[in-house]
Target: Protein Churchill
Amino acid sequence: MCEDCVKEEYPDRGRMCLDTGSYLLNFRKCYFCDHKEEMQVINKQQNGQDSEEEFVTYEHVCSHCNHVIASHEYCFRVDGDFQEYEMDCMLCGRGEDVVTILPDDMRMEQEL
Model:
C-alpha cells in the first residue's frame, strides 16, 4: 500500500461501505509512474456468500505500471435482527453501517 498515491489515508466515509469500485477523488496519482488514470482491481476474492458473513478483498493497482496503491477489505454479516457492513481501505476509506432487517427500527424510535 502506498500513502504517496492517496490524498488522505483511510478517509472517514461514515456509513459508506462498498464491495466494489475505487474512490477516485482520493487518488492523487501513481507515485511510481506519475499517471492518474483509472485503476484496475486485481486479486479479488469473495468468501462466504452463502453464509451469514461475506468477505470481499482486492487490490487497487495502477493501470499503467501495476503498482499496488491500496488493499480493499469489505465485510457483511447478519447479527440477529441487524445487517452489519464494514469497509477498510487506504484509498476508499473506513466506513461502517448497521441496518435492521425488521420493518420498524427500535433504535430510531428511541432517538425520537
In short: The mean pLDDT is 89. Helices lie at 106-111. The CA atoms of residues 20 and 56 lie 9 Å apart.
